[in-house]
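Researcher: Re-running this chain for the archive, since the previous output was lost when a drive failed. Same request as before.
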Amino acid sequence: MTTMALPSVGASSACPEWDAIDWPTALKQVQRLQMRIAKAARERKHGRTKSLHRLQTRSAGS
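Model: Regenerated structure tokens:
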């Protein structure tokens, strides 16, 4: 019986960019943006909520 090589799945563990991220600053920025989204939603500002949400999902910093 022959064995099949299984493909590796997931992100590689050797990613120098991952370790270079300033995590406390990144988390603070994400939290601030989430608070802005929540405030816009509370104030029923649909357009502002949508634009902030889009910023959060598409920005490199988030």
